[in-house]
Amino acid sequence: MIQLSNCKYFRMRWIILLIILFSHNLPVFSQEWIWQNPIPQGNRLKSVFPVNSDIVFAVGGGGTIIKTTDGGRNWKIMESCTNANLTAINFANPATAYCVGVNCTILKTTDEGENWIAQQIGTTRSLNGVCASSSDTCYAVGSSGIILKTTDGGKNWTNQQVTSGNSLYAVTFANDSTGYAVGNQGIILKTTDSGSSWKLLESGTLNQLRSIFAIDADTVYAAGEYGTILKTINGGTTWVGDTSKTGGRLFSVSFINAKVGFSVGAGGTIIKTTDFGASWNTIETGRFNWLESVCFSENDTGYAVGYDGTIVKTTDGGTTWSKLSTGLNNRLYSVYFSDEQNGFAVGSGSSFLKTTNGGTSWTIQSYESNLGTNYFSVFFTDTSVGYIVGEYGTILKSTDGGINWKALISGTWLWLNSVYFTDNATGYVAGKEGTIMKTTDAGVHWKVQKSGTTKAFNSVYFIDSNNGFAVGDSGVIVKTTNGGTNWEIQKSGTTSTLNSVCFTDVQIGYAVGFGSEILKTVDGGMNWKASYVEDIDWFYSVCFSDSLTGYATGSSGAILKTTDGGINWIAHKSGTSNHLNSISLTKENNVFAVGDAGTILKLANKIINPTVEISKNAIKIFPNPTDQILNLLGMEESCEMIIFDLNGKKVLEQHLFSNQIDISHLKSGIYSIKILGKSGITIQKIVKQ
Fold first, then answer.
1. 1-53 pLDDT, tens digit each
2. Which CATH fold topology does 44-161 show?
3. Which regions of 117-219 does DSSP assign to beta strands (E)?
4. Looking at the domain 332-606, which fold is it?
5. For residue 670, which of 10, 29, 32, 31 has the smallest C-alpha distance?
6. pTM, full prediction
7. Residue 496 — φ and ψ, nearest 5°?
8. Which of 120, 149, 252, 512 shows its CA 20 to 30 Å from the CA of 388?
9. Taking the alpha carbons of 443, 447, 449, 455 in that order, is the dihedral positive or negative?
10. What distance in Å separates the CA atoms of residue 116 and residue 93, rounded to the nearest whole number?
């Protein structure tokens, strides 16, 4: 038996060892949402700029900035410090670039895009175009005719607006003094004095112009709606309409040299001229998504980007184009994991995705007899047996882990929006016109149940074999306490459409839908109380892992999390502006979200260099080491706190309302603590004695 004095001795040696380890640069873990489909990401890309044939940048929705240094084989998602949709990027030199976006977002980098710093403007108008004539001088144009200029590297910006009411979409400079801008109703502006004054030119069209490219001060091209391509060879005195042979919208025009140019637009259109713009011919590319920007680094190598994260490249002067981005781009409505490794996501166009490695890779599958059918919900009772429901009464079943699927006879042509099983044999589907059906023989037969309403149901959920809920249009909520034999309408207190329902036990449940409200009941659905979330237009899905921890997803990439049973909801930075339609939690609390444009996101651990200072007003944490209480000095009114072990596993998460954290229940060891507040993030290593 070890004596008490020896126990203290060994304990002290252990603490000293921990402190020694603590003093070294050990990894600190944070969490972030990472893209799993499409790859490299699925946000709409609005602008592309190749620094050279290998180093290329593209920007787009949700603050997206991506970079490749190997000609597009691999892409890195850069930290942009914003969630705003970004619309244009332009480099003054290989190190210095400016990027603009909605809400007058302007970002600048001086280290080849590794770090981006937001510029302070003092207006909320959206910016659509940018041109950097030097590292210090830059122009940006946008809504309501705004024209901004800086001559000191972005420290100060002046508004040179000359029009009102007509948005500007693009700006370019042929040299230090001569520049052009285009916008709504065929507007073309010109400056010959570095932007001190701008003159309105006669374009000869009322079509919206989206892009402008200057060969030199006199020869300029503009492109826009209805296949419009304009050209001037006399500095804008007269403009001639060239024949583009497309009636679709053109978003971008770019030239390799005076003779050869390209324009891209709606439907993945790519057109090319080889005769100084006299004629334009369509390049046959197969089928691409809409393309919004095209740019060449040299005569042979060019890139174009567009909807759903589409990236295409040519290395033969535009004769052929290959797609660099990969993955399914169909809208995904539902995701479900049968265990930590096996998951499914279903959506529009009869296609669905499957992973067998925890989302590291996804394979596209389809049920050929239902080509074109939209699937709205997926559920697995175990790793082998699963069900999918969708349009026209579709119910599919797999008994081999999703390799093969068989159509079941549902007995209805109505859309089925949700499926849920309480055991291997007993399941429910819900859909339009108040449809609720039940099977007790693993889908062989389905019996219609009387729901008491003709409102469409969008979600069905069972707490156990007897207690279940369904929610849907006009705020309808119905409840059963006898396995669906009877359903009773509950008073939801809202007329907004409800899209999702989830319960943590027979008393406590949540429902979300169109609007910024999250409904909660603590009495088994008899009463529902709404809490409102700012800056959210609507919710699509809600899911809880336990009585305290839950997630909700919605429009424009919204992901919210609660760790106190819905009292407070904290917004996550999802990294996307795509609508997120479904969220799923595994037993080990891995979290997946799916949505528009084939979006699949996973909440993952991220290693952070602990020596990087993240918050200017970092919270001081003491005593450290400690065996019970951590005190916080400089904490804001409320913060979110997460503690990770050295393997990156989350061991404690709280929404803090006091300046103390009790860690007495944690095992002795080294941990990293992350505190998120309005002023920033504090990350620090701590030692539990």
1. 333 334 444 444 444 444 444 444 444 445 689 999 999 999 999 999 999 99
2. Neuraminidase (2.120.10)
3. 117-118, 127-132, 138-142, 147-150, 158-159, 168-173, 179-183, 188-191, 199-201, 209-214
4. Methylamine Dehydrogenase; Chain H (2.130.10)
5. 29
6. 0.83
7. -75, 145
8. 512
9. positive
10. 15
